[in-house]
Specification:
The chain is α+β, with helices and mostly antiparallel strands. The chain is built from 19 helices and 22 strands. GO terms for molecular function: steroid dehydrogenase activity, acting on the CH-CH group of donors.
């Protein structure tokens, strides 16, 4: 049994050992009130809530301290909010009722097992329209003034998509979202309420009398790798730890392509791609899903997987197969691998899953954007904190310079120069030749591609258009936020004054898991019978961000960080309350209060 003493090699300085000046409180006979498995955002939120209630917390993670905050650190920091002050200042008329309609039509809940996902969706929308902004603001989080319009749908009021812009960008991006929870947890660590045990890999949930009472696993050899860099899996020793509550917050399956392929919804999206870029680090492996299932947990909606269609190879990778997502404005033309323009509404930023299906139906696993310099300057953003240094570093001067600049942002210019997916050309002949050099099979016919671009270009010569994408650009520019920073004025792509021409090869990119451990609204994990498993909680992506899949089939974006925060909050508060009841009732700390759990 690991005691986390100074001889434990997994606790070497700089590798994730406890920095508390009070030593190792849980090695002195004081057992924790809760064990949290996973030091990502949901785990930090749960720990924050527990320590606010005065509870002692032990946080385990298979990676080192450099990875504290998990995948949230790499994110753009987008948050889904409803009827916010930022929206109202931009004259966006949003409401909880409209958001509920958008969520319902996007989620498409249609299964018996969607009972708890529906309830989580309802609760999350109430949170996004109410407590969420104030809760984060009280922790010191601030937002940028421009609200983004993600997943626009474009195929009807009763189908998937955001009716209005709701993507609120954090001032400081993902690292700032992590910081506002990391700092209070580290303060609690210094006070002796939190113990971190990095390089501790959980392999089993300990059960007794139907309850989960602890964890078993192996310590791993020290790793001094930087955040996101793949670490070793050299095993050192066994450990066994016990607590009245275990909260699983270990994320999804985004770097486990074998598991993704096993559950990939071929009937809905098409065959699993031969080439898939990794949008998350190698440690996002989904191991705890099977471990929890082995302990009796119910796993639902495993086939609901959220991958992106606009992935590009990172020319400067951090983890194996590292891909970056382009967050595009509405003007780039989108072609399949053979050079055929996608039909409406398969436009950049409109409907991820519909376009995913359209791409895979071609029999190929990649596609192309064709655009020009004017479009890339204004409309290309790269997802990720490291690709947006001005926002991440909260530098207002550089951010304003970026908005005003006639050049593409520095990270975009780097991809144009070094990225293997980018073709920059002065003529259409050079452009198509470069596309064919990067082909993974088909040869694009020059004349066919160019004629499609010319047909589209003719639709920009006047204020009217029968081209649905050109209509969508006009619609986007009617929103001030898009007009300022995201949507360029319609113009001819082949107009040399807007050149050079650019083509970007787009691969599919793994990202989020929309199914997982089934939980009630307290974050208590359910068994297959629908009853709660005493002592076991879960939060974050391992729960499909709540209940086992609160997004249903589609995400409206800005909902992943928010889902980690909301589910971590609910699980942390419930576990703290349970710990309090166990103490006041005199029950053993591994007691089994069930709470609400049965299916209705």
């Amino acid at each position: 049994m690991s005691s986390f003493d100074s001889t434990d090699p997994s606790r070497s300085p700089g590798d994730g050992g406890n920095s508390s000046a009070m030593g190792d409180p849980f090695a002195q006979g004081r057992s924790p009130d809760a064990i949290i498995v996973g030091a990502g955002l949901a785990g930090l939120v749960a720990a924050h809530e527990l320590t606010q209630a005065g509870k002692r917390v032990l946080i385990l993670d298979q990676e080192n301290r450099a990875n504290l905050g998990g995948q949230a650190f790499w994110s753009l920091g987008g948050l889904f909010l409803i009827d916010s002050p930022e929206q109202r200042r931009l004259r966006i008329h949003d409401s909880l009722e409209l958001a509920k309609d958008d969520w319902a039509t996007s989620a498409g809940f249609d299964r018996d097992e969607d009972h708890w996902p529906r309830k989580w969706a309802e609760a999350y929308l109430e949170f996004a329209a109410g407590e969420k902004r104030r809760y984060l603001r009280d922790l010191g989080l601030r937002l940028t003034p421009i609200v983004g319009w993600a997943e626009r749908g474009g195929s009807g009021a009763g189908e998937h998509g955001n009716s209005v812009p709701r993507f609120h960008l954090t001032w400081g991006t993902g690292p700032e979202v992590v910081r506002v929870f990391r700092e209070p947890v580290e303060t609690a660590e210094a006070a002796g309420l939190v113990e971190f045990a990095f390089r501790h890999r959980v392999d089993e949930l300990i059960t007794a009398g139907g309850a989960v009472v602890g964890v078993r696993g192996r310590t791993l050899a020290p790793s001094h790798t930087a955040r996101g860099v793949e670490s070793n899996r050299d095993e050192l020793a066994d450990f066994e730890l016990r607590a009245p509550a275990v909260i699983v917050t270990t994320g999804g399956i985004g770097h486990n392509f074998e598991l993704m392929k096993k559950y990939w919804p071929v009937d809905r999206l098409g065959e699993f791609p031969d080439t898939m870029l990794a949008g998350v680090p190698a440690h996002v492996d989904g191991r705890m899903l099977q471990i929890a299932e082995d302990a009796g947990a119910s796993l639902i909606n495993r086939d609901r997987i959220w991958a992106y269609t606009e992935g590009i190879e990172n020319w400067n990778p951090i983890w194996p197969g590292h891909g970056i997502r382009i967050i595009p404005g509405p003007s780039s033309m989108w072609f399949d691998a053979e050079g055929n323009r996608f039909p409406a509404p398969n436009y950049p930023g409109f409907d991820t899953n519909r376009t995913m299906r359209t791409i895979l139906e071609t029999g190929h696993d990649y596609s192309w954007f064709v655009l020009n310099e004017s479009i890339i300057r204004k409309e290309f953003a790269l997802s990720g904190s490291e690709q947006n240094p001005d926002l991440t570093e909260k530098d207002i001067r550089i951010t304003l310079d970026r908005v005003r600049s006639s050049d593409a942002p520095g990270p975009i210019e780097a991809f144009k120069k070094y990225g293997s997916d980018f073709v920059v050309a002065e003529t259409t002949e050079e452009l198509v030749a470069g596309m064919n050099e990067r082909s993974r099979g088909p040869v694009i016919d020059h004349d066919h591609l160019v004629e499609q671009i010319r047909q589209r270009d003719r639709q920009t010569e006047h204020a009217f258009s029968k081209d649905a994408q050109v209509q969508a650009i006009h619609n986007a520019r009617s929103y001030l936020g898009d007009k300022i920073v995201r949507a360029v004025k319609p113009h001819k792509i082949l107009d040399s004054t807007h050149g050079p021409l650019i083509a970007v090869r787009l691969s599919l990119l793994s990202r989020k898991t929309l199914g997982g451990l089934e939980t009630n609204l307290d974050g208590q994990v359910l068994a297959g019978s629908g009853e709660t498993i005493p002592g076991l909680y879960a939060a974050g992506e391992v729960t499909g961000f709540g209940g086992g899949g609160m997004h249903g089939y589609n995400a409206l974006e800005g909902t992943f960080l928010g889902g980690c925060i909301f589910s971590g909050l609910r699980a942390g508060r419930a576990a703290a309350e349970q710990a309090g009841r166990a103490v006041t009732s005199g029950r053993p700390e591994s007691g089994s209060a069930q709470g609400e759990g049965a299916h209705s």
